[in-house]
Give the backbone structure.
Amino acid sequence: MRDLLRARTRSRDLARAIAALLGLAISTGLVDAFLSGALDDFTDDDLSEVDLTGTDLVGIFWSLDGTRWPRDTDMEELRGRSRRRPPTPVSTL
């Protein structure tokens, strides 16, 4: 129990620090976003104007059809460094 309390306190402190670095006024939900991978999901993002030089792309999610990359991105090299993720099952109601 004591370790859990310590971990929660530490995660709140880290979320506040990250929110400050990102210029966010509040950090509510930031820990959940990190844990769920929401901040690693670039499957529908336009990165065409972003300088990715030296950027570690390990662990991010991207889509061949949805992610827009800078013109000089070597897609074959990027695919070679990537691992295919199985599609997320769509729930039917």
